[in-house]
Design goal:
- By secondary structure, the chain is an all-alpha fold.
- The chain has helices at 3-14, 18-29, 35-44, 69-80, 87-94, 98-110.
- α4 (69-80) packs across α6.
- The longest helix has 13 residues, at 98-110.
């Protein structure tokens, strides 16, 4: 599925709220990941791996390994805006800057499931 089609699907599935639209537009403005972004994302992921498995297995907590960066950013932005219900994820997302979010997205996109 092309990137534009994916964005339209996200808007259709989750509703075209103003915050989600802003998150989609924000995700489309991030530059390609560099090795330094991935390294920074790995450093930041220590909190993520307390719940999400680094090997990509889903043992009750959804896997985030291998997610496309734009999808990762849209999902985390929707937690940040409290459009997705999960108090833990809302709290974690609220603390992330745009730079940290981009680095985490780059890191998780670089991983492959075992």
């Amino acid at each position: 599925m092309g990137l534009t089609m994916w964005r339209l699907t996200v808007l259709f599935l989750f509703g075209a709220t103003s915050t989600l639209c802003a998150a989609v537009l924000l995700a489309s403005t991030f530059r390609p990941a560099r090795a330094s972004d991935i390294a920074f994302g790995e450093y930041l992921s220590s909190e993520c791996v307390t719940c999400h498995r680094k090997d990509g297995q889903d043992k009750g907590i959804p896997s985030i390994v291998g997610w496309p960066t734009d999808q990762f950013i849209v999902v985390i932005q929707s937690y940040k805006a409290k459009e997705r219900p999960n108090q833990i994820m809302q709290t974690i997302a609220a603390r992330l800057s745009d730079e940290e979010l981009a680095a985490l997205a780059a890191y998780y996109a670089s991983l492959k499931s075992n």
